[in-house]
Amino acid sequence: MLDMIIIGLGLCLSAALCAHFAQKRGRDPIVWFFLGILLGLLALILLFILPPATREKPVGPIETSASLPETGLNDSSWDQGKGTKEEVVAPQAHSLDPSDIPLVERDWFYLDADRTQVGPLLFADLQDQFKDGSVDSDTYLWSEGMKNWQYLKDLEELQSLLSDDAEV
Question: Is residue 11 part of a domain?
Fold first, then answer.
């Protein structure tokens, strides 16, 4: 009976260590916790034999590489101490000319105060965000047809449409 308790505690310790080191190496800690229970120390050894996992590129308008306009947001302080340096760029435009689409019919994205991407939003939803103060003139916006993220204050036509109280 004591042997079973010791083996169970050893497997739990192995599972906890696998989960901890899996997270540090960019792997799913839950999967590795269960592998630690099933395989014991073999899972821990396997975890260190495998190369660290690389982070996948985010899906959607935010990708890592190019940059926002010169604002100081491209330095590592932009990520607020998370230890990574990610920059925000607009995605590649599609083959149709999206600048022909009226502003009120586009899907919109914006960066909130924590520099987290929000969207896609319909124009009416963006207008609601503007009215409640989530979006203001110093908010970065992007929509298909734009080369880069831009401040709302630099998009005069859009700002005027958002400020308009009439229904769109």
Answer: yes
